[in-house]
Queue: 2 jobs
Job 1
Amino acid sequence: MTVVSGRTEGLQEPRAPYAGGLESLDREVELASLPVEGRIPSWLRGTLLRNGPARFEVGERGYNHWFDGLAMLHAFSLSGGEVGYRNRFVRSGSYREAEAKGRISRAEFGTDPCFGLFGRVMATFRPPVTDNANINVVRLAEGFAAMTETPLPIRFDPRTLETLGVVNYDDALKGTITTAHPHRDPETGDLYSYLTDFSLTSRYHLYRLAAGSRRRERIASMEVQRPAYMHSFAMTARDLVLAEFPLVVNPVRLLTSGEPFIRNYRWEPGRGTRFQVFDRVSGEHRGTWRGPALFAFHHINAFVDEEGAVVMDLAGYDDPRIIDFLYLESLRRGEPDFPRPTTWRIRLDPGGDGVERRVLSEQNIELPRVNESRVGRPYRYAWGTANRVRGHFTDALVKIDVTTGEASSWYREGCFPGEPVFVPRPQEKTAQGEAPAMDGGAAGSQQDAEDDGVLLSVVLDARASTSFLLVLDAATLSEEARATVPHALPLGFHGAFYGS
Ligand code: CO
């Protein structure tokens, strides 16, 4: 009997209860009608599109990190109380090369291809950039695109999920990495995003992409010595804010180290977090605010308060250890001290460069969403996943009233929900057939409408080895319906609902 690292061979590795959501799903299926329990609201018509990693091995080798897995799109179509489901891999360059060569062929977030010496030298000059668009789904440039953190969004058909090809932007804006979380202004429909261009002098570029356009208009650029890893950024109705967490990279190191992408970043808490604020219209750099060192993947929302200060809410961590816990080996094993995010509110002093930070709610939240009509505006509700049982990753759905910090939750033992997407109930028609005016009617009616709708979340039922689409009343988090897929779906990242 051989003993390897203190464990006896043949004994089963400890396994987290949600680990069934971290296995490869090779099947692509089309199910016309899923069994439904409860009642789907009759007004709920459209498609929930979800994105996430779904293949974690190629040939003999596995990807290292949860963020590396090959992208799969899932579509839940809702109509007349019925729910259909289909799924397809994104036929990205990463996917096609993996299929053709039978091995990992492009550099991902936490995994590099295995190069020989010659391959490594060549890769230094021309690294094979991944287009494995596994993070989000965005309506972009006359269509729908799957996105990751390289600026190579991949268009797909929202009905068939067929891959249509990389989005070709009609401009000369250059960047090495970007965010899969652009913001859409609820009034104009324009998208706002940023690029980091790694070079001898690296730069952040902020840009606007008008609805339906493929031409990105540069709003501002800023030179940066050590670019920060920023999975998302903040937008108010007036500003764009890059929160430079002190997880930073020397771009030369990125090219020459031979280490996977994220392993080149260094945690330098002494820098604090630098909030770079830009005017959304003029591009003017309003200034740099310095706050405590923290790390976050996700901003929740941001707005300008009555005193003209930028206020931003985020799901933050004291340090970036969360990235290490999301390596597949650790995540599948389950860790009792898995970091929990803190729900913070950050306010930038409008008269100086100071930063106030306070805990907005005792309730932790991840994969946060808001009513999309409130993006960049004062708002009241955030919904997201949460951790309730230590070490159980995301095992609850929560709603936080950000004006009071009060929270409510949905929890079922053995169930592991993904990001909840808010879908507003359509405005009631009046007798005249007109939608009621937003500024008329009873005082506070606009405020009350913010949580009037449903939440859609794909939930892993670990005991049954199935997944279901969960429909919750967004106001009360009471269950309205669930539609079950007959097998487990890999845990996903982000998605969007498109009405029909
Ligand atoms: Co994200």
Note: Residues 1-10, 430-447 have pLDDT under 50 and may be disordered.
Job 2
Amino acid sequence: MTRHDPYPSRTGGRAQMLPRKDPVVCSTRSSEGPLSPSGIEAFERDGFLVIDGFFDPAETRSLQQEASRLPETLADSRAPEVIFEPGGGAVRSVFAIHRSSTTFAKLVTTSRLVEAVMQILGSEVYVHQSRINYKPAFRGREFYWHSDFETWHVEDGMPRMRAVSVSLNLRENSAHNGPLMLVPGSHKHYISCEGHTPERNYEKSLREQVCGVPEMSILEDLVERGGIVAPLGPPGSVVLFDCNTMHGSNGNITPWPRSNVFLVYNSVENALEAPYSGQQPRPEYIASRDFTPIPAGA
Ligand code: 6CS
Ligand code: FE
């Protein structure tokens, strides 16, 4: 029997905008946790919430140091978790940082972070993915517009929209160095993409995304409705965003790196299944299949 796909994409059909079928905030715990009612309301409406000064300067500095050290310890061994910029030697991303570093292992269990995510998702959570995006000075390339959920559904078998991403600034995000841009309200639509997923797509997509890219007329429509927001701010600020919020970022030709830590929490009630592409699952360092909940209050 073929499995019903609530969010078809890259199935050879035409690009289209479909309605979201899942709640953005699960009401069961939405009043219990560190987020205020207006914060929850903004997250539900816009698909993201910015919290300035979430980590203090000392905490952020130690995370920044660990982030600069990480590629040196891993790059020599040609670890697959280290992704390089297209056509260059600069490190673009390092994946599974909570597995290779005790500092980041501790970071993912930060209780006020986990509690905020649990408040939104209404259940216990586990870490689906973690990475640092370095967006290096002069050579950091763009991240084209995409919904993370579209990839996680098609390539990792994430069944429903019930995951939250955390982007933590390790460096100042200014208007110049390719800050994260989000489209408010876009999370309420599922953008089904054209084409089919090539085998081992991640070997290319993590450097430059070609597949799972929304059609331009649909992007135009989303931006006409919601506009574009680029939260700017000093190191230590955090953006919580829904797994289906349309986002991207420009390249960085400035002398200032725009590094950020990216952590994805998925509901334990939304554990990964077989990828909807029908292909082999992506490796564990990109999409974890260890669904052990993070202990609350760690
Ligand atoms: O393929 C992925 O899972 C990742 N790719 C992008 C461009 N963003 C989210 C996610 O980290
Ligand atoms: Fe993304």
Note: The chain is about 25% helix and 20% strand.
